[in-house]
Design brief:
This protein has about 130 residues and is of the alpha/beta class. The protein is built from 5 helices and 4 strands.
């Protein structure tokens, strides 16, 4: 069975302004959320603040779009409602243990992200104008 063209197209946002991400969401059926710049380290306090800010903006617009988290397997089961995530965990680490790669992948795959988002308070920079 062939994958429909609309499901193969994906916009990608890496550390760009939130307005750009919102434009991508309006134009693409799926969007990949990446990390770069000051938000390069997935899961860091700066990254978490940015992800909260992004999902707060998305929640204001209605139903959440399909968002894939690049290099985000560690976030599976966390608070952000990513539709999917990828990583290199199995490919890089299966050789270090006695677990087969398929079993490692299945263990990761059963951990799901939430499907909803509750707007969270945002930490504001004290130097920003009120």
């Amino acid at each position: 069975m062939a994958i429909p063209e609309t499901l193969r197209r994906t916009g990608v946002a890496h550390g760009l302004p939130i307005d750009y991400l919102l434009e991508l969401i309006d134009e693409w059926p799926r969007v990949c959320f990446g990390s770069s710049g000051v938000h390069w380290q997935v899961g860091s306090p700066a990254w978490e603040r940015r992800a909260d800010e992004v999902f707060n903006e998305l929640a204001k617009r209605g139903p959440l779009p399909w968002i894939h988290m690049l290099r985000g397997l560690a976030l599976s089961g966390d608070r952000w409602p990513f539709a999917s995530a990828d990583g290199v965990n199995v490919a890089r680490n299966f050789k270090d243990g006695n677990t087969c790669p398929e079993r490692m992948a299945r263990r990761i795959d059963v951990i799901q992200c939430p499907i909803t988002w509750a707007v969270r308070p945002e930490q504001r920079n004290m130097f920003d104008a009120a």
